[in-house]
Amino acid sequence: MGAGLLTLFHRRLRVSLAAPRVAVTASLEAHGVVGETVTFPTRRGRTLTGWWLPGEGRGTVVITHGWGANRELMLPLARPLQAAGWNVLLFDARNHGDSDADTFSSMPRFAEDTEAALAWLRARPGMAEAPAVLLGHSVGAAAVLLAASRRDDIGAVVSLSAFAHPDGMMRRWLAGKGLPFFPLGWYVLRYVERVIGHRFDAIAPVTTLPRVRCPVLLVHGRDDRVILPEDAERLFASRGETPARLHLLPGDHDLSRHIEAELPELLAFLEAALAERAGEPA
């Protein structure tokens, strides 16, 4: 392949892999939610936009959306958490919603943005050591596992519809495009690793989950055809000594039609995790 064709192939590949930007369509007031719009810095001089929903002091849940989504799409989960007394911080990752553009999106950059959200939270009065929970969906779920694996100040992690390994996600994407794995698909995977600056093995949830030092709830839809339930089972099997639980429930990848029925179990998990961290009876 000549240099010109290779450059064109790389350009087309990056366009194909780019996350679509979905606009935030309504304000918190229009949604009937109490809160405020906030902005805070992230890596590479970019700024993220989010919503701060104050609760009643139970702790804070930081929510990281998935690929091509935005903070507004996570409101159906944020709203009942706020009603249960939790502060909620939702934000748009770079290249998503109202946040700044950057050269590309990747799961490690989602993790960087999650840590930027935590830095903003920790800088607020009274929040330096307050309980914090990370919750993410899909790529956002993999990102919160990566972020949590690097920290010891997280009370719990909730992973919704996470993949087990980026390699498997990329192979499914290649198959959907009708591209053979050898030699083209193999080259694509190595090129993506070079662009994002990380080896897939190093950032895979099956690698990061065993390094997380707080309770983790893995939630996955039995009817998910984007990331198959087998990924959740593989991820759970990799947990090592991390106190993780796997909960398979009816539903597809976005879980939006089924998560409300699971809220009592989710809230009970959060309460038990934070009670354990505080050394109290669950």
UniProtKB/TrEMBL annotation:
For this protein, the record's Pfam families field holds:
Hydrolase_4 (PF12146)
One GO MF term attached to the UniProt entry: carboxylic ester hydrolase activity
Question: Is Hydrolase one of the keywords UniProt gives this record?
Answer: yes
Which positions fall inside the Serine aminopeptidase S33 domain? 57-174
What keywords are assigned to this protein? Hydrolase
Q: InterPro entries annotated for this entry?
A: AB_hydrolase_fold (IPR029058), FrsA_esterase (IPR050261), Hydrolase_4 (IPR022742)
Q: What is this protein called?
A: Alpha/beta hydrolase family protein
The organism of origin for this protein:
Halomonas shengliensis
